[in-house]
């Protein structure tokens, strides 16, 4: 896709002004049955019949190329540091269920055309049997398109949301929480692609609650941080510039934390030309993920840290080490079931 550089620069200049008053508004307001994919029937039956901790794992090289043909013996799963036997292993071509969650603030409205047209690279990268839904958020979250295999309907839903034009709230924490709820009962591989500035006017207590939800979730979140070069802006001369820079710094950390906790990635493109490559990589990761499962070793109702390692397959457990040449994306942990 060809994009005009001058259009991008104009959008970024206007965005700087918008973000200054949006950050000020955020500081004042900070207190303030969908369809299920018919994917992987056998996997769903196994997951319902046996209590498993499900871990979807993407394995790539440092260039983002997917590593194929890995087998169960190539993986080590550690629960609080103790290796667990892998009792479930699914093929890598299992269909995915992807929710595109779009911030509909005035700032995003200014760059919507360049950015959302590039999202076609994500939809094109998904397979015909992958499922897509579209949601939006500002003050509240709304499900705009239920899970469908119609990629054209998803593209249309992305290109025609209702954007807020006033100085409203951006409840990112609530929006992500709603997205997790929408995906909760879906048995397929699940992911959220979060298209957001990362600015959040939710109360701090709401973020603490969301962090616990993310730790317990099986949903991987891939964040696209909007704002371009403004995230590196260190303004000091005009009113509002320092606050805008600080808010972007906090927003960046928030998106990185959300992605890391769920086994996803956070991207911060500086120009519109970077969007297609980012979306293509996300599509590959979403499509090509190994599904592992293990039985929780104890029923203590507590958070357990998960670590996934990839080894050559012929190493004894005591010598197993994560290969440094690979990038492994997996969920951060899980909440163990409690005693009955």
What does it look like?
- The protein has 340 residues and is α/β, with parallel strands linked by helices.
- The protein has 2 domains: 7-31 and 94-286, 3-Layer(aba) Sandwich (Rossmann fold); 44-92 and 288-335, Immunoglobulin-like (Sandwich).
- Helix content is 36%, strand content 23%.
- The chain contains 10 helices and 14 strands.
- The chain has helices at residues 5-29, 41-49, 106-110, 112-118, 120-125, 151-159, 172-183, 204-216, 241-262, 275-287; strands at 53-61, 75-79, 82-84, 88-90, 96-103, 131-137, 141-148, 189-196, 220-225, 266-267, 290-294, 303-310, 326-329, 333-335.
- The strands form 3 sheets. The protein has a 6-stranded mixed sheet, with helices on both faces. The protein has a 4-stranded antiparallel sheet with strand order 4-11-1-13, with no helix packed on it. It has a 4-stranded antiparallel sheet with strand order 3-2-12-14, with no helix packed on it.
- β2 (75-79) and β3 form a beta hairpin.
- The protein is globular and about 55 Å long.
- The model is unreliable at 1-18, 20-37, 39-50 and 234-245 (pLDDT under 50).
Strand percentage: 15-25%
CATH class of the largest domain: Alpha Beta
- The helix/strand series, from N terminus to C terminus, equals HHEEEEEHHHEEHHEHEHEHEEEE
Shape label: globular
Structural class assignment: alpha/beta
- As for the CATH topology of the largest domain, it is Rossmann fold
């Amino acid at each position: 896709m060809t994009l005009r550089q001058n259009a991008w620069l104009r959008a970024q200049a206007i965005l700087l002004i918008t973000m200054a008053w949006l950050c000020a508004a955020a500081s004042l307001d900070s207190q303030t049955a969908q369809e299920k994919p018919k994917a992987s029937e056998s996997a769903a039956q196994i997951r319902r019949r046996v209590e498993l901790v499900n871990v979807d794992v993407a394995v790539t090289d440092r260039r983002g190329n997917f590593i194929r043909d890995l087998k169960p013996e190539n993986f080590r799963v550690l629960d609080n540091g103790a290796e667990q036997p892998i009792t479930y292993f699914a093929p890598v071509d299992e269909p995915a269920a992807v929710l595109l969650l779009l911030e509909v603030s005035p700032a995003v409205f200014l760059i919507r055309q360049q950015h959302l047209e590039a999202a076609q690279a994500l939809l094109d990268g998904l397979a015909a049997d992958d499922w897509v839904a579209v949601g939006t958020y500002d003050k509240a979250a709304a499900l705009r398109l239920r899970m469908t295999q119609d990629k054209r309907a998803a593209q249309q839903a992305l290109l025609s949301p209702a954007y807020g034009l006033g100085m409203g709230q951006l409840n990112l924490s609530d929006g992500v929480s709603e997205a997790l709820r929408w995906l909760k009962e879906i048995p397929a591989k699940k992911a959220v692609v979060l298209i957001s500035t990362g600015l959040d006017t939710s109360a701090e207590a709401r973020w603490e609650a969301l962090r616990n939800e993310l730790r317990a979730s099986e949903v991987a979140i891939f964040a696209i941080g909007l704002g371009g070069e403004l995230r590196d802006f260190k303004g000091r001369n005009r009113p509002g510039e320092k606050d805008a820079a600080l808010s972007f710094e906090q927003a960046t950390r928030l998106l990185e934390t959300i992605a890391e906790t769920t086994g996803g990635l956070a991207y911060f493109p500086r120009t519109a030309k970077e969007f297609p490559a980012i979306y293509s990589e996300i599509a590959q990761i979403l499509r090509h993920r190994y599904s592992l499962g293990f039985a929780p070793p104890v029923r203590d109702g507590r958070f357990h840290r998960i670590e996934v390692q990839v080894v050559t397959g012929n190493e004894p457990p005591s010598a197993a080490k994560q290969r440094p040449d690979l990038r492994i994306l997996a969920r951060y942990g899980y909440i163990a079931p409690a005693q009955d």
